[in-house]
Structure formats: structure tokens, C-alpha cells
Known about the structure:
Largest sheet of chain A: 3 strands, antiparallel
Helix content of chain A: 55-70%
Number of helices of chain A: 5
CATH superfamily of chain A: Winged helix-like DNA-binding domain superfamily/Winged helix DNA-binding domain
Protein name (chains A, B): Transcriptional regulator
Structural class of chain A: alpha+beta
Number of domains of chain A: 1
Mean pLDDT of chain A: 87
Strand content of chain A: 5-15%
GO molecular function (chains A, B): DNA-binding transcription factor activity
CATH architecture of chain A: Orthogonal Bundle
Distance between the termini of chain A: 62 Å
Radius of gyration of chain A: 21 Å
Low-confidence stretches of chain A: 1-5, 110-116
Shape of chain A: elongated
Strand order of the largest sheet of chain A: 1-3-2
InterPro entries (chains A, B): ArsR-like_HTH (IPR011991), HTH_ArsR_DNA-bd_dom (IPR001845), WH-like_DNA-bd_sf (IPR036388), WH_DNA-bd_sf (IPR036390)
Oligomer: homodimer
Domain HTH arsR-type (chains A, B): 3-97
Amino acid sequence: MVVDDADDGGLNRLFHALSDPTRRDVLRRCARGDLSVSRLAAEYPMSFAAVQKHVTVLEQAGLVSKRRSGREQLVRTEPDALARARRALDELEAHWRGRVERMSSLLEREPPTREP
Amino acid sequence: MVVDDADDGGLNRLFHALSDPTRRDVLRRCARGDLSVSRLAAEYPMSFAAVQKHVTVLEQAGLVSKRRSGREQLVRTEPDALARARRALDELEAHWRGRVERMSSLLEREPPTREP
DNA sequence: ATCATCTACAACCATTTGGTTGTATGTTAG
DNA sequence: CTAACATACAACCAAATGGTTGTAGATGAT
């Protein structure tokens, strides 16, 4: 990422974090209930360290948080971050809708088909 | 991307495409009205070829399409792709909501504070 | 106290990304 | 026809990504 990070309120990291299927799966699993990192790691055909890194990416994107419980680290998804991503998509869609509205208002300016 | 691409219906490419601020800006600008690649390129502090690559990434993610018009190539945003991304986020949020509902139903199972 | 478990983190490696420049090709204007 | 413009695409490069292994520190169980 070239940009320096405050530019977009973390949207870069947010969407980047979402662009990996393992990470999306982690979000799904943890949404059903907090899971320790090692519990998660057992689910994927990769090393513990790899999963640890994925969790770190999710954490830095704000999509999960970790809380210690004994020797385990429980991962919890943070739905607020998902909401932020959604709002970003809404904003993009709004630009497009604005265009549609502009086109519609052109159409509306045309007189409706004459009522009989 | 390690995964082989049909696994997720293109969500990897979709979110990856959205994870760059230049590309999100291209989407915004083209949403207001189709723009040629060179018109777009003029807006960013990078080479024409770099912008061309960004457009290609957006195109392969399904977020834009290009149509030729004379010697120009007009870029148009494809809101359906944005909708796909939104549905993916909704699905993730639904998992979390499911959890909340499960917690709620646990609470509901508890007897209400005794009525005197 | 010892041992097994969970986590953290560094070092390393192959591939991908995001950028560059340069060259070639097609299209429109004069 | 020729010149200018818009695009396409290859080759190259530095940095980031996604993975590995290995080492070390905490914590819990016996």
C-alpha cells in the first residue's frame, strides 16, 4: 500500500483484509462465537503462524479484536468494521445512483404520455 | 492469490480491486459518467500505463466494463459488482446477527423477573 | 518442577502488486 | 499522407503478500 493510511479511514486495509477467503472464513467462524487462534488454525491447511498472520491482518483492519483468556487468545469479530465497509460501498453506489437520478430527471422533464 | 478463483465467485478479486484508493476513485468518477482511460489518467499522479493497469484490475473484478468509442476506450462502472460485494458483506454480518439472535433466545428462555 | 500447549515473533522465500519506461498499433485530424 | 493521440503490451524493478520454519516466552496441568 503506497498511501499513508489516514487518507481513507482504513478502507484500504479493510477491503484488503476482506480479499482473502481464509480471512473471510475466520470472520464467519468467529462471528458464531469467539475462537482461540489455535482452534482456528486447526481448521485450515496451513501453519499456525500463517493463520496468526491472517488474524493480525484482520485485527489491524479493525475486523476482529483479541482478548486473552488464560493461555488462549480469543478472536472476536467486530461487526462495526463490516458496517464501515458497507457504508463505503453504499457511498460508491450512491455516486452511481446520483447519475441515474440525473438521467431520470432528464426523463421526468419530458411530458408524460398524454392522459386520455 | 493462492486459491484458484471459482471458489468464491470472484470475491477475492472484487475486494482486492476495492482495496486501492485510486481504483475506488476511478469507480466514483466513472459512476458520474463514462470516462476514457486517458481522461482518467490525467487525474492521477502516475503514468498512463499505471492507470491502465488499475482499470484492468477493476475490469477483471467485474466492477467496470470498457466500450470502444473511436480511438477512446470508455470506462463504465458496473453497479452489479458493487451489489455482489454488498451481499457478501451482508452474508458475513448475518452470521454475526445469527449469533446475536442465539444469545437473545437464550435470554428469552430465562424467566422474566418475577411478577409480584 | 516439568511438560505440554498457546502464542509471539524473526528470518527466509516465492509470487504478486503497483509502479516505471519503452515500443508497437490503431484512429482521427489537418 | 503525416502528425498527434489513445491504447495496448512487454520488460523491468522495489515492495508487499502469503506462506514456511525455527526459536522463545507464558500459562496450565500433572
